[in-house]
Amino acid sequence: MAQSDEEEDYMTMTFEEPKESKHETSLQRAARMRKEGEARSRQKSKAEREAEAEAAREASLATALPETNKGFKMMAKFGFKQGGTLGKSENARKEPIRLNIKEDRSGIGLESEKKRKFREAWEKSEREAKRSKEDQGDFLQQRRQQQKEKKAERDLDNAQRTAERLSEQEAEEKGSAHTDEKSLTDINVLWRCRARRRVEHQRDRRQRRELDNGLASRLPTYVEEDEDNDSKLALGRDVAPFYTSLENELEEEDPELAEFEALPVTERLQKLLVFLRETYKYCLYCGHRYPDAAMEGCPGVTEEDHD
Predict the structure, then answer these.
(1) 19, 29, 160, 244: which has the highest count of C-beta atoms within 10 A?
(2) Which residue ranges are recorded for the region named Disordered (predicted)?
(3) Please, what is the angle between helix 192-213 and helix 110-174, to 10°?
(4) pLDDT tens per residue, range 123-169
(5) Residues forming a β-bridge with 282
(6) What is the pLDDT of residue 117?
(7) What is the DSSP string of 194-218?
(8) What is the pTM of this model?
(9) Which residues contact 244 (CB under 8 A, 6 or more apart)?
(10) Alpha-carbon span 299 to 285, nearest angstrom
């Protein structure tokens, strides 16, 4: 039996959504009350409370006074209209002054105190930085001065050695006495300290040798009256004191050398450089002995002239 055209196919059947009930069921009421209770019991955070207060404040400031407001009615008696200005001037302020809410709990004037402390700390740090820079500059200047003095001492030693060598060559050419054969006071004071150091070094070596080799002479020994000197020496009974050389070679004072050594190293170096140029036509920094006093080709006396 064939189906009629009016009969609907089950594949094309549609189902209508159930309409919401106008009445609240007991389950819905219980769920709603549970949600409301949870919302009431939940503590709002500080940020949320501040945001709500800020929103309420902005909303109240953005809302004009209603005509039913008591304050508005009092101003209306004096001729105020909504959107107008207070007073007779038309250029007066139409909107109220914005509130500047103090949100922190600090006292009045604390902000200026913080600014003062910040300014003092900044000034202190600036002074310390300036002092540190000055100290660093002084330290660098001292280092440069020390290096300059050490360089001058090396140049002074080279100049003294050169002057002594040229003086010995001149003495050999003239056939006069050698430097080691002269008395210390007869040597030029410009390089006398070198000869003095050699004499002191030789004296120290001789004294050390006497101290090492004369151990028996330092000990008390029994000496027979009729014993000859050869027997005393053979038996180590030399009773001569070991400090004989110390007594015989006491250093003599040299005020001229002391006065020269008291001068600054740069001044002593300058005297030696001038002496070498005037006496031997020799320039320490050129390292050359010129044939005449004009010293043609030499830029000057000091090292700075040769830079």
Answers:
(1) 160
(2) 1-69, 81-181
(3) 80
(4) 888 888 888 887 777 777 888 888 888 888 898 899 889 888 888 88
(5) 289
(6) 86
(7) HHHHHHHHHHHHHHHHHHHH-HHHH
(8) 0.46
(9) none
(10) 10
- Residue ranges covered by each domain of the chain: 125-281
DSSP character at residue 302: S
> Among 30, 66, 153, 53, which residue's Cα sits nearest to residue 103?
53
Contact 219, 241 (CB under 8 A): no
Q: Which residues of 261-285 are buried (b: 16+ CB within 10 A; e: fewer)?
A: eeeebeebbbebbebbbeebbbbbb
Residue at token pair 């002084």 = 138
Residue 188 has pLDDT above 80, yes or no: yes
Helix and strand counts by DSSP (H, E) for the chain: 10, 2
Report the distance separating Cα 261 and Cα 258, nearest Å. Answer: 5
Q: How far is Cα 111 from Cα 89, in angstroms, rounded to an integer?
A: 37
